[in-house]
Design brief:
The complex is a heterodimer of chains A (412) and B (166). Chain A is mostly helical and 412 residues long. Chain A has 18 helices and eight strands. Chain A is globular and about 90 Å long. Chain B has a single domain, classed as 2-Layer Sandwich (Beta Polymerase, domain 2). Classes of the chains: A mainly alpha (412), B alpha/beta (166). At the A-B interface, helix 2, helix 9, strand 6, strand 7 and strand 8 of A face strand 3 and helix 3 of B. Chain A: It is an enzyme of class 7 (translocase).
């Protein structure tokens, strides 16, 4: 017998008939998945309407960690925006950093030397590896398979050690500079990257052996949360989620940036856009990232790691101590006294989740007039209720996990 | 490969006076149109046999408080994946009348982009199925990305101005 209070909470309860028994047709349960639920990996509220075990409809509330980055950016010199971009997709912050720096370089018209471009590619691919690693590992955890996660998480730690070697920070890296990199790759960093590649391949093989044809895992994710290519395009999906649906759109290939045209790699494409395809596309992308990484580290060109643009490139600290010109430029850049030319730029990079775009309008001042982030998470998360429709709650968990929704990027 | 001139010419041939301000900053074809023409224009570009702008990259807005009559600029970024060609459409609105038709019937993804633009700038998308705030609280009674609102929360009274350089 359902209580009076619950009846009021349910909108679709039919009027109670005083004479006969209560009819329970069309009665839906409202279930709050989140805001803080261990399986949402972040703060998202999903209000699901359930008919028994089936999800009838859902509605998301986002914005729990909205930090108004676009507004803050309007008051910050270009260098200080780096730290904001770090905190969007915090699973792969180097990609955000490099994307931002490339946007500013496009605005300023700075040509970055080949070596710096290759180092950027290396860092971005390491970030992609770390991002996909977390996503796929956690998908395993959400289906109850903790072992795979334990096996591969050590490699993420090793990637973070490389970040640490390159820039001193692990999570919120700011290794890039406008015009190049903060510093060159040290011999230790190069050694660590070269050691990482074969070890990563081994671990990834082991991970695939655990999961790819695992009966329990496949039962949980095959045919779950599929989305057609047309719907995915209509929603504006990009990245692995779109490629799982069968569209081979990759910003690295369509609009190459930072010397991506020099490398040979394939775009893995799925067919049905279901959770299994998303998992497999991410897995295959890790293999491709390793290929790019190997090519980039073996063919690392000689030369400078920063462009000859002293007005914009923050000089190395050792120079600042010894050289008057460097001290002056350091001061002017840090105080944000150097104006950028007026202009309007859209630059996109392939982030961990897809097309991460920076729309920057400069009015010739020291800060952007308007900065808008095209965040892939924000755009595809709205398809989540449609993808869950008619499935069970346990399916909803793996769909969210496989979409790789990152709270920081969603809310910005 | 499409060139900016070809695409611009195709659009001018179809829409004539309704489009203008053609420019290509950093090689991205940019032009503006009117509020009445924006939806016909996007659906024309989407359904065109060769252009096929079937991907909506982004919708956002910019506030120019100092240009009377065109204070708000709604910016659409479209992408033709087949031709690998991007373009940018702008619609200028005056602050007295910030209504613009919604693009949700054309692209499902426009839903949240428009909600975000509404939330941050107050641009009203007519015909939007669910035009509510998305990032900020429902209780907020202003649109924070407008230039008249300073970066710090102007509604707070617990901060002493002198200590914050205001």
């Amino acid at each position: 017998m359902i209580s009076e209070e619950l009846d009021i909470a349910n909108k679709n309860v039919p009027a109670r008939n005083d004479n006969g028994p209560v009819q329970y047709v069309n009665e839906l349960t409202t279930l709050n998945l989140g805001p803080t639920h261990p399986a949402t990996h972040g703060i998202f509220q999903n209000v699901l309407q359930m008919d028994g075990e089936k999800i009838v409809s859902g509605e998301q509330t986002i914005g729990y960690i909205h930090r108004a980055f676009e507004k803050i950016a309007e008051r910050r010199p270009f260098y200080q925006i780096t730290t904001l971009t770090d905190r969007m997709n915090y699973c792969s912050s180097p990609i955000n950093n490099m994307g931002w720096h490339m946007t500013v370089e496009k605005l300023l018209g700075i040509e970055v030397p080949k070596r710096a471009q290759y180092i950027r590619v290396i860092m971005m691919e390491l970030a992609r590896l770390a991002d996909h690693l977390v996503c796929n590992g956690i998908l395993g955890v959400d289906t109850g398979a903790f072992t795979g996660f334990l096996y591969i998480y050590q490699e993420r730690e090793n990637i973070y050690e490389i970040y640490e070697e390159v820039c001193g920070a692990r999570l919120t890296t700011n290794m890039g500079r406008i015009g190049g990199m903060e510093r060159d790759l040290s011999p230790t960093a190069i050694r660590k990257i070269k050691e990482l590649i074969p070890r990563f391949r081994k671990v990834l093989t082991e991970f695939e052996n655990l999961f790819n044809r695992n009966r329990i895992f496949m039962d949980r994710i095959v045919g779950v949360g599929g989305i057609s290519a047309e719907r995915a395009l209509s929603y504006g999906f990009t990245g692995p989620n779109l490629r799982a649906a069968g569209v081979d759109y990759d910003v690295r290939v369509m609009n190459p940036y930072s010397s991506y045209e020099d490398f040979e790699f394939d775009i893995p494409v799925g067919q049905s856009g279901d959770t299994y395809d998303r998992f497999m596309v991410r897995n295959e992308e890790m293999w491709q990232s390793l290929r790019i990484l190997e090519q980039a580290i073996n063919n690392l060109p000689e030369g400078s790691y920063y462009a000859d643009a002293p007005q914009y490139y923050l000089p190395p600290k050792q120079e600042v101590y010894r050289n008057m010109e460097a001290l002056i430029y350091h001061f002017k850049i840090v105080m944000g006294e150097i104006d950028a030319p007026a202009g309007e730029v859209y630059h996109a990079v392939e982030g961990g989740n897809g097309e991460l775009g920076f729309y920057l309008i400069s009015d010739g001042g020291r800060t952007p007039y308007r900065l808008h982030f095209r965040r892939p998470c924000f755009i595809y998360y709205q398809a989540y209720p449609e993808m869950c429709k008619g499935l069970t709650l346990s399916d909803a968990i793996v769909i969210m996990s496989s979409m790789n929704v990152i709270a920081g990027e969603l809310d910005a | 490969m499409l060139t900016n001139e070809e695409v611009a010419q195709t659009i001018i041939n179809q829409f004539g006076e309704a489009v203008g301000d053609f420019d290509d900053p950093y090689d991205l074809l940019t032009f503006s149109t009117s509020r009445e023409q924006i939806i016909p224009l996007i659906s024309y570009l989407k359904d065109h046999k060769t252009l096929q702008f079937g991907f909506l990259t982004d919708i956002t807005a910019v506030h120019y408080p100092d240009s009377p009559g065109r204070e708000f600029c709604v910016v659409y970024h479209l992408h033709s994946l087949i031709n690998n060609f991007r373009l940018r459409i702008k619609v200028y609105l005056s602050k007295e009348d910030i209504h613009i038709p919604t693009a949700v019937p054309l692209f499902a993804g426009a839903n949240w982009m428009e909600r975000e633009t509404f939330d941050l700038f107050g641009v009203i998308f007519d015909g939007h199925p669910d035009l509510r705030r998305i990032l900020n609280m429902e209780e907020m009674d202003y649109h924070p990305m407008r230039r008249e609102y300073p970066l710090e929360d102007a509604t707070r009274e617990d901060k002493i101005d002198a200590l914050f350089g205001r």
